[in-house]
């Protein structure tokens, strides 16, 4: 064999070795919601493949499982759900159980707010809307991925620590921004009760015509009383603007705006983040855009 041929052979062997290292399958995480998927990406970087069942703009309460979902979940090394019945009829839990894949409920460990349930009060599932709770989601994910891939646990802890710092900074910024709204104007009127944690954490009062879910669960859905209370609340507080949500049909909020003679202040990300390439495509981006929209409309 000539020297040239030997070098070619060596290069070919090196290429094959490299390709097999790159091809070694990465663990797969399948998430129910876009928020949970973003938290997971922040923690695992490129070490794992993160997929989300829901696409941007889809409503987790009303989601109907698609034929491909069971196949997607069956490929997961780890499944992540928001939990607390955000996923209507617990569709993510059912998918994970049917495939026998491990499932972590990211909201577990957050301090819950209560909403009406079937026999007793239950936890309001929209816990990610306070940065403190978002940090709990991130810690749950950090611990879960470290178990799936203990060799890189230190790396996951480092990424999580940096991201937790970013969440703390975001929290401080939101408090400062909301303080620009006159106290009596700090009323947040949206379609459904997604913003209870946000309002509690950042000193606002929530008013919505629809309860904790856009679906037909107990304590959810629109009633004439709730709708009237929302209109009364707008008039009583002289609310300047109310908001539609990106994942909920805006018709009712528009009707209420006309009836109460109030403006639509813009569109808020609620149960879903923005599409790829938009300012709301990450959790931090979504929170920032919401706060800017709210403050612009109400200050
Ligand atoms: Zn919701």
Describe the structure.
The chain is of the alpha/beta class and 299 residues long. The protein has two domains: 28-173, Rossmann fold (3-Layer(aba) Sandwich); 178-298, Nitrogenase molybdenum iron protein domain (Rossmann fold), CATH 3.40.50. It has helices at 3-23, 34-44, 67-74, 91-99, 131-148, 153-178, 196-202, 224-236, 251-260, 283-298, and strands spanning 28-31, 49-52, 78-81, 103-105, 114-115, 122-123, 187-189, 205-207, 241-245, 263-268. Strands 2-1-3-4 form a four-stranded parallel β-sheet, sandwiched between helices. Strand 7, helix 7 (196-202) and strand 8 (205-207) form a beta-alpha-beta unit. Helix 3 crosses helix 4 (91-99) and helix 6 (153-178) runs parallel beside helix 10 (283-298). The longest helix has 26 residues, at 153-178. It is globular. Mean pLDDT is 92; it is low at 13-17. Zinc ion binds next to loops. Residues 1-21 form the signal peptide. It is found in: Cell envelope. Its main location: other. Belongs to the bacterial solute-binding protein 9 family. One of its GO terms (molecular function) is metal ion binding.
List the helices and strands and how they pair.
Blueprint: H1 3-23, E1 28-31, H2 34-44, E2 49-52, H3 67-74, E3 78-81, H4 91-99, E4 103-105, E5 114-115, E6 122-123, H5 131-148, H6 153-178, E7 187-189, H7 196-202, E8 205-207, H8 224-236, E9 241-245, H9 251-260, E10 263-268, H10 283-298
Parallel strand pairs: 1-2, 1-3, 3-4, 7-8, 9-10
Antiparallel strand pairs: 5-6
Helix pairs in contact: 2-5, 3-4, 5-6, 6-10, 8-9
The structure holds zinc ion.
Zinc ion (ZN) is lined by residues 61, 126, 192, 194, 213, 271.
Pfam family, one: ZnuA
Signal peptide: 1-21
Protein name: ABC transporter substrate-binding protein
């Amino acid at each position: 064999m000539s020297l040239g041929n030997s070098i070619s052979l060596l290069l070919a062997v090196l290429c094959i070795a490299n390709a097999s290292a790159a091809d070694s399958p990465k663990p797969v995480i399948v998430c129910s919601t876009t928020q949970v998927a973003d938290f997971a990406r922040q923690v695992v970087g490129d070490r794992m493949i993160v997929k989300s069942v829901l696409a941007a703009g889809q409503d987790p309460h009303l989601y109907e499982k698609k034929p491909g979902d069971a196949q997607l979940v069956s490929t997961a090394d780890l499944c992540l759900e928001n939990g607390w019945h955000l996923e209507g009829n617990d569709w993510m839990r059912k998918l994970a159980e049917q495939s026998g894949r491990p499932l972590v409920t990211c909201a577990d460990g957050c301090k819950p707010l209560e909403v009406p349930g079937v026999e007793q009060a239950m936890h309001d599932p929209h816990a990610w809307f306070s940065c403190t709770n978002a940090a709990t989601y991130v810690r749950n994910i950090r611990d879960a991925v470290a178990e799936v891939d203990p060799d890189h646990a230190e790396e996951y802890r480092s990424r999580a620590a940096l991201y937790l710092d970013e969440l703390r900074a975001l929290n401080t910024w939101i408090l400062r921004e909301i303080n620009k709204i006159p106290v009596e104007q700090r009323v947040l009127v949206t379609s459904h009760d997604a913003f209870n944690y946000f309002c509690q954490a950042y000193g606002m009062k929530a008013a919505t015509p629809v309860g904790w879910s856009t679906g037909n669960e107990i304590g959810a859905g629109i009633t004439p009383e709730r709708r009237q209370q929302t209109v009364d609340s707008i008039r009583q507080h002289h609310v300047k603007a109310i908001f539609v949500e990106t994942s909920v049909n805006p018709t009712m909020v528009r009707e209420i705006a006309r009836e109460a003679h109030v403006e639509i202040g813009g569109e808020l990300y609620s149960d879903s983040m923005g599409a790829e390439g938009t300012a709301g495509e990450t959790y931090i981006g979504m929170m920032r855009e919401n706060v800017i929209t709210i403050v612009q409309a109400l200050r």
